[in-house]
Specification:
With 263 residues, the protein is α/β, with parallel strands linked by helices. It contains 9 helices and 10 strands. The relative contact order is 0.15.
């Protein structure tokens, strides 16, 4: 398994500084939060995209994915959602990133599964042309692996997959073995993190909270899964959380030890 972190933990940080953190602390990749308040998002032009590619290549770091905010089952026109996903796919293609992250959305709509599957199926077609996989994160209305699998099973396309957010499946009451059983056929990569508790999702250093991180990594290793583990530290939403930069070294050491122990 390869190790990465998300720029959600270092909001607004220039690309060169993000890469300095990655190389200093031994991370193999970075997940880029593709929001307009970040340096890299679908609104940047070809020259800026080429500069990002050159910077990552020079640093020897991979762009794991483009983390977008499109919500597949939101109550709006198909074109609105699909245009947003298309912009993310084109950005990922230009950056050489294999994955795009989207959310299920949908709230409590009884049609959320069908709407998400229809739109994800269309997105998978143009993602295939771009050599990118669109991953629906376990989130929102589809917090557990079982929830996400209902949509992904209906889509049945190689370029539609799942992003497993460990926090959300745990908050949904799902055991890691059950999550992997549901998402295994579709799994793109895994977001790991740690939090204080179900009633306090303040991000903590890996290993300092309540999430079943070790159990998750050990299960992935036993099952022979060899993808990306990406630390999503949600500093953007928690002003009082400790800065990620000071935690990255210890987090990498913990993840590396868990991966080694799971082999």
């Amino acid at each position: 398994m390869r190790l990465a972190f998300s720029t959600l933990g270092v909001p607004g940080l220039p690309v060169e500084d993000v890469l300095r953190l990655a190389t200093t602390h031994g991370y193999h990749g970075v997940e880029l939060r593709a929001h307009p308040e970040e340096p890299v998002h679908p609104g940047i032009g070809p020259g800026e995209r080429a500069d990002v590619v050159a910077s990552f290549k020079a640093a020897g770091v991979s762009v794991v994915g483009v983390a977008g905010y499109a919500r597949l089952a939101d109550d709006c026109a198909d074109d609105v959602v699909l245009d947003e996903v298309r912009g993310l796919v084109e950005l990922a293609r230009d950056l050489g990133a294999p994955f795009v992250r989207v959310f299920p959305g949908g709230g409590e709509s009884p049609d959320a599964d069908a709407v998400a599957a229809r739109r994800l199926g269309v997105a998978a077609e143009f993602a295939a042309d771009a050599g990118v996989r669109v991953l629906m994160e376990t989130h929102d209305s589809h917090r557990t692996g079982a929830d996400a699998a209902r949509v992904l099973g209906a889509v049945g396309h190689l370029h539609a997959g799942a992003l497993w957010d460990l926090m959300h499946t745990w908050l949904g009451g799902e055991d890691v073995a059950d999550t992997f059983a549901a998402l295994g056929p579709y799994l793109g990569y895994v977001q790991v993190k740690d939090i204080a508790g179900a009633d306090d999702t303040t991000p903590l250093a890996l290993g300092d909270g309540v999430l079943p991180l070790a159990e998750c990594v050990q299960l992935l290793g036993r099952r022979g899964w060899d993808g990306w583990l990406c630390w999503e530290y949600e500093k953007r939403w928690y002003d009082d959380a400790a800065p990620l930069a000071g935690l990255l070294g210890g987090g990498r050491e913990l993840l590396a030890r868990l991966v080694s122990d799971s082999a």
